[in-house]
Amino acid sequence: MENIAQVLENGSSEEKIQILEKLESANEPEILDKIISKLDDDDIQVRGEAFSSLVLNKNKISNFLIKNLKSASKNIRGFSLLVLANRNEVDAIPEIIKLVGDERSMVRTCAIGALNFLKAKDEREIFLKSINDQNLEVRKSAVQAIIDLKIPIKEEQIDKIITENDIEIENLILQLKN
Question: Per residue in 88-116, pLDDT tens?
């Protein structure tokens, strides 16, 4: 176990990936914390392998993921949200909601996406409020959730969505109007 932690801390990207590929059944707290810390690795492939390892883990690890929603790292907060969603952790919805107002737009986008993925239709006010977020990606995520969850929205609310000449959000808005 000490060797695993050592490689995850100081190994090359290739070594980290090799170790992470074998950790999808990890349930030791110190190893789970190390895996979660790799969600903030410099190498995107290491982050992806850590993400996969956590999503595929069959153990009850939601408490570890929820604890990391308070991390100082935006990557750990954001990717932990997405892992919770991909694991279908509907019990985490109250904790996910807390990050809808995060200071980092990437985290807000992930929180909205996670709520959409978990089909949190009862949180319609969050989605409707988020279509006015100052960040375009947050707005796109909110509009996508409104479409996916079939949340009713008034025409005047649709017309107020700022598009910033972005073709993707303009296409989403067209879907809303149909």
Answer: 999 999 999 999 999 999 999 999 999 99
Query: Is it the case that residue 124 has pLDDT exceeding 90?
Result: yes
CATH number, position 47? 1.25.10
78, 35: one domain:
no
Domain, as residue range, for 133:
61-178
| Residues 94, 147 share a domain | yes
DSSP string, 5-64: HHHHHHS-HHHHHHHHHT-TT---HHHHHHHHHGGG-SSHHHHHHHHHHHHH--S--HHH
Cα dihedral 69, 72, 76, 82 in deg (nearest 10): 40
**Are 47 and 71 part of one and the same domain?**
no
Closest by CA position to 114, among listed 131, 91, 136? 91
Q: How far apart (Å, rounded) are the C-alpha atoms in residues 126 and 121?
A: 10
Name the pTM for this structure: 0.91
Q: Which residue has the higher pLDDT, 105 or 30?
A: 105
Going by C-alpha positions, the residue among 119, 145, 39 that lies closest to residue 83 is: 39
